[in-house]
């Protein structure tokens, strides 16, 4: 965009020069050169516009890729949380089955104790029958009834015991099956979690590479802005020096050894110094001019510091940076106009 603004300024300057050349009835050969330069500048302007559109499309595509990868990470995290919930539910189910198994074992113990007590009672009855057969003959029918009842109770207890044994074996087989299923499920879940962790690590690695690439681009942009500001500052300083030399040369008398711009450049090349240093040598005790130069130097220093602070500040700072650079460009344009007017008068 800055290059576009420079090209537009150059086009306006070329148009102004072509108009002034037409008014002053210059030769036709320079106007053709100016038209060619205007066409070249227009071509450069079109190329810069296409380049900016390409860069904006690439930025949009990169943002879409980052959003898709973030949605993928969220989906993977949701799946991991769902698997963890399923695992905790399975663990609770296993604990319930174990508690039921303990309860069945306790019931089995109680049934065994009742069976033993019944056996002891049968033995006691048999001893009582042997000891008092005569007394029991009268109560034989009652004893037979009680015996039949006890036998029925015994058979019932035995049948219940067999049923509980069958249930116990079934529960043991089910417990073994559930343990096998849990081991299979744990292995499958661990494999799935390992795969998901690997995929998430790859996704994070790609994101880190993209972030490094974007940070490199940001650093490149900062170096571009810094070099641009340095070049702009240097060009403005050169323009100020040229304006001061033009003013100095315009104020000098013809008798003062016939000094001119070519003479100053020749003297600077002979003395092996720059024209700026030569101008400072010629500027003998001009306090007002030195004070103005110091103010301009301090102002330029503050401007460079402001550009550095904008680059180090948080987003967004593009509008502030644009305003600062446009301010310097306007100053440069004014200096160019002043220098051109001075050169016309001289």
UniProtKB/TrEMBL annotation:
Residue ranges, annotated region (Disordered): 1-34
Domain of life: Eukaryota
Annotated GO CC locations: centriole; centrosome
GO BP terms in the entry: centriole-centriole cohesion
Positions with biased composition (Basic and acidic residues): 1-17
Name this protein carries in UniProt: CNTLN protein
Organism: Oreocharis arfaki
Phylogenetic placement of the source organism: Eukaryota, Metazoa, Chordata, Craniata, Vertebrata
């Amino acid at each position: 965009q800055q290059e576009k603004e420079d090209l537009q300024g150059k086009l306006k300057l070329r148009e102004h020069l072509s108009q002034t050349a037409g008014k002053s009835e210059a030769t036709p050969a320079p106007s053709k050169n100016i038209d060619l330069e205007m066409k070249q500048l227009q071509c450069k302007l079109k190329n810069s516009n296409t380049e900016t559109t390409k860069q904006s499309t690439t930025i949009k595509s990169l943002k879409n890729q980052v959003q898709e990868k973030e949605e993928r990470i969220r989906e993977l995290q949701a799946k991991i949380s769902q698997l963890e919930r399923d695992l905790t539910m399975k663990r609770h189910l296993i604990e319930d089955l174990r508690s039921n198994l303990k309860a069945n074992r306790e019931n089995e113990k109680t049934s065994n104790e009742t069976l033993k007590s019944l056996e002891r009672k049968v033995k006691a009855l048999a001893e009582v029958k042997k000891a008092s057969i005569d007394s029991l003959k009268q109560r034989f029918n009652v004893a037979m009834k009680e015996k039949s009842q006890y036998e029925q109770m015994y058979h019932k207890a035995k049948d219940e015991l067999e049923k509980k044994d069958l249930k116990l074996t079934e529960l043991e087989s089910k417990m073994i099956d559930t343990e096998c299923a849990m081991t299979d499920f744990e292995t499958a879940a661990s494999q799935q979690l390992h795969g998901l962790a690997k995929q998430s690590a790859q996704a994070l690695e790609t994101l880190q590479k993209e972030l490094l690439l974007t940070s490199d681009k940001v650093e490149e942009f900062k170096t571009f802005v810094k070099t641009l500001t340095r070049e702009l500052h240097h060009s403005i300083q050169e323009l100020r020096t040229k304006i001061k030399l033009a003013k100095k040369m315009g104020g000098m008398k013809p008798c003062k050894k016939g000094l001119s711009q070519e003479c100053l450049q020749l003297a600077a090349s002979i003395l092996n110094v720059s024209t700026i240093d030569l101008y400072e040598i010629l500027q003998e005790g001009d306090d007002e001019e030195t004070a103005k130069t110091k103010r301009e130097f301090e102002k330029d220093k503050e401007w460079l510091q402001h550009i550095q602070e904008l680059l180090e500040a948080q987003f967004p700072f593009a509008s502030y940076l644009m305003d600062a650079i446009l301010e310097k460009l306007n100053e440069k344009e004014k200096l160019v106009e002043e220098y051109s007017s001075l050169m016309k008068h001289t």
